[in-house]
Fold:
Amino acid sequence: MRITKMHGAGNDFVIVNNLTAQIPPERFPLLSKKLCAPHTGVGADGMMVVVPAEKDGDFGMRFYNKDGSLGEMCGNGARCICRYGFENGLAGETQRVETTAGLVVGERVDARRYRVRLNDPSVIDLHRRLQIDGEDYDCAYVELGDPGIPHAVIQLPEWDTWDTDRLRALGRKLRYAPVFPRGANVSFVKASGTDAVKAVTYERGVEDFTLACGTGCGSIAAALTLLGLVPGREVSVSMPGGLLSVTLSNDVGIRDIFLTGPTCLVFEGEVSEELLEEA
Structure:
């Protein structure tokens, strides 16, 4: 089976083109676990499957986390798959991708940079309070799309001075907090300038920190704009894997969230039947 590996600011993915592979959908969850495994597979944060469009998109995308669970959408993954669609003749300079969370429109900025319009928020709760190990936390909760991708945004100015294991433990507990009915991706954020923030995201499905989270960046920009902490016109989000840019509109509520950043084609190749025989 032919695969492509790409990453967007360090957020890495295996892409399977099911327009040609014709894999039964019931095999996707186990296939994702096999391919994304770091030592016995290719290694990735998630798997994206190109599927036929059901409406007026150029093509569809199904996103699976490395644990095999179906994700609603992925911002960095969407940027990568828009490049894939353009370079493989599935779409033109503008790409319309159907996802579980709704239609995502992408745009080729240059050979490696792509911009996608993230799904508008369906839920925004700027103050969702909870308690972990006796400490009170005030989270902004945002869902992008419908069904929405759940994100918790936590202002923690000292997060980058914490021991990684300590921060990971807090991220895991917050991710499963009862105030988030479907769990949540958890972003720790600190201001680094008038229109700039530094952040890291603990992602559900990966169950660890990733080098970057695209929908996390959009949720961070949306929440901090409404809280009056950034202007929202163009917010630079520095994540461990690189710099991403978010713009949005806030005239009649948060909408038109655009995520811009780099993509990288890592390799294209064949996966052996030995890996696939149990998937």
Q: What stands out?
A: The two ends are 12 Å apart (CA to CA). Residues 75 and 156 are 23 Å apart (CA to CA). The chain is about 20% helix and 45% strand. Residues 75-87 form the longest helix (13 residues).
